[in-house]
Amino acid sequence: MLDFLIDNIFVEFGGFIFQQTVGIPMGTNCAPLLADLFLYSYEAEFIQNLLKDKKKKHLAKFFNFTFRYIDDVLSLNNPYFSQYLHLIYPSELEIKDTTDTRRTASYLDLFLNIDVDGRLHTKIYDKRDDFNFPIINFPFLSSNIPSAPSYGVYISQLIRYSRACSHYTDFIYRSVLLTQKLLQQSYEEDRLKLTLRKFYGHHHELVDPYDVSLTKLAKDIFITW
């Protein structure tokens, strides 16, 4: 079955049908699982070889805080990761190091920063922020989408921001951008405020670390622009 899936991938373009012989196209149902299993097979073999080697067995513990989601890898406090990278993955795999500095890096939708005291701080990372053109996302209320799920997007993003942002200022920055965008897409300010109240009431544990009241939260988000 696996051979059939890989050998029978066809793409139509410009009136012609092409067979893909290298890689797996994005969007194929099996692609994420196959990519995950493919990389895991190399990672598992690497760790097993380390554990079998008495001289290198102690290095395995440095990979305890190494994580991967599909093809994005994060390795924390591991001075040996780059040194052994070529032994983990096949040479055909193109590896791109996206580490900014020794203390900062982006991983998935997070920007990570380790301060001088060794504490880890996170905030939202969105590569679309660097695009020089507007991004169309989130539902427009002028469309045929029901309003209830549309406003549900607001609360879901607030939950995401509060979980990802260590600092209140970063949470507010993202929340203000989101609120501005939704208001421009015909959302009602009063209903957004009501949704914010629901978020604060139902997910208070997420904003407790910020130590802010609902009044201050609403004031900081619904500023005048």
Descriptive notes:
The protein is of the alpha+beta class. The protein contains 8 helices and 7 strands. The chain has a 3-stranded antiparallel sheet with strand order 5-6-7. Helix 4 (147-164) packs antiparallel against helix 5 and helix 4 packs across helix 6. It is flat, with a radius of gyration of 23 Å. The chain starts with a helix and ends with a helix. The mean pLDDT is 90. It comes from Mytilus edulis (Blue mussel). This is Reverse transcriptase domain-containing protein. Residues 1-145 form the Reverse transcriptase domain.
Core attributes:
alpha+beta, Reverse transcriptase domain-containing protein, 225 residues, 8 helices, 13% strand
Helix content: 40-55%
Termini Cα gap: 57 Å
Structural class: alpha+beta
Output the strand order for the largest sheet. 5-6-7
Low-confidence stretches: none
Protein name: Reverse transcriptase domain-containing protein
Domain Reverse transcriptase: 1-145
Organism: Mytilus edulis (Blue mussel)
InterPro entries: RT_dom
SSE topology sketch:
Blueprint: H1 2-7, E1 10-13, E2 16-19, H2 31-52, E3 66-69, E4 72-75, H3 81-88, E5 104-107, E6 110-114, E7 120-124, H4 147-164, H5 168-184, H6 189-202, H7 204-207, H8 214-221
Antiparallel strand pairs: 1-2, 3-4, 5-6, 6-7
